[in-house]
Each structure stands twice: as structure tokens, then as C-alpha cells.
Amino acid sequence: MCPSAISQVQSWLDRCNAEHSECKVEKSLLPTRVLDLGNPLEPEAKIRLVEPIGQIDHYVALSHVWGKSNTFLTTQDTFVAKKTGFDLDEAPPTFRDAILVTRALGVRYLWIDSLCIIQGDQLDWQTESSKMVDVYTKSYFTIAAGNSNSDTEGFL
Fold first, then answer.
1. Tell me: the pLDDT tens digits for 100-118?
2. Is 100 left (phi over 0), alpha (psi -120 to 50) or beta?
3. pTM of this prediction?
4. How far is it, in rounded angstroms, from Cα 51 to Cα 82?
5. Of 13, 31, 89, 144, which has the fewest CB atoms closer than 10 Å, so is most exposed?
6. Cα→Cα distances 144→39, 72, 75, 86, 119, Å
7. Are 57 and 109 in contact (CB under 8 A)?
8. Phi, psi at residue 35, to the nearest 5°?
9. What are the tens digits of pLDDT across the range 18-32?
10. First CA to last CA across the chain, in angstroms?
11. What number of CA atoms fall less than 13 Å from residue 14's CA on the CB side?
């Protein structure tokens, strides 16, 4: 990751927060589930799926193309493992890139639909998918990985 690119993005965020009242995002209630990336200064920290009931903080959202081979999901079978934590190198490239950017910008929490909504669970999907507009609207910022055809390509 290019330090000058991260510095540029940070300056855009700082300017936006200082000068644009319409897009300044205050810390907000975290979604039902988010990925806790750990202390941004500890890049080796495990990434854990957490349920931060009532917690207020900044988080980043990822908008991405799933592609055909998306196997890195939270399901009923993988829920406990995702809560226990996974290493950065276990994540597909698009998720890995989003984690790196989020950490580099000093944000601890990241929301990714395929990990934060339990896939294959109809009730969870109905409940959580109905909140997606708010999830994206209330995020500190959204990373749009639109140039990738799947999560296996990455964006950095």
C-alpha cells in the first residue's frame, strides 16, 4: 500500500469532516455485526466478527462484487470460527485490501455483507438486509471495490 495514497485519502477525509457539514459523519451505533480489526497499530491482530450491542464508533463499509467463487462467508457453520478470529492472509484479496486500508486510516471496525450477515439464514438475512441502507449511510466511509469481478481480484 502506497503511504502517499493513504495520506491523500486521510487528507480528503479530514477536509470533508472539517468543511462539508452535509457529509461529516459522526460516530454512530455500530451495525449488528462488524469485523473488529483490532488496534490499527497491531497489523498482526486477528480479525474477529463481533456483535457490539449499543456501541458507538466509526466503521467502514465495503461494497464489493461477490463473484462466483465466494466461499469466505459467515454461515451457521462458520459463525463461531469467525467470532474466534481469522488471520489477514485467510481473507480473499478484496477483503484483505479493505482491511489494510481501514487499518491504515486508523479505523477499527469494518462491515462486509457476506461476513456480517449470516448467509443461508433466512431470518438473519431478512433482518440485516433491511438495514443495509443505514449501514452504508452511517459508515464513516464506504470502500467501493467496483473494478473487480470477484473477491479474488483485490483492488490495491
1. 999 999 999 999 999 999 9
2. alpha
3. 0.91
4. 11
5. 89
6. 23, 19, 24, 23, 21
7. yes
8. -90, 125
9. 888 777 678 999 999
10. 7
11. 8
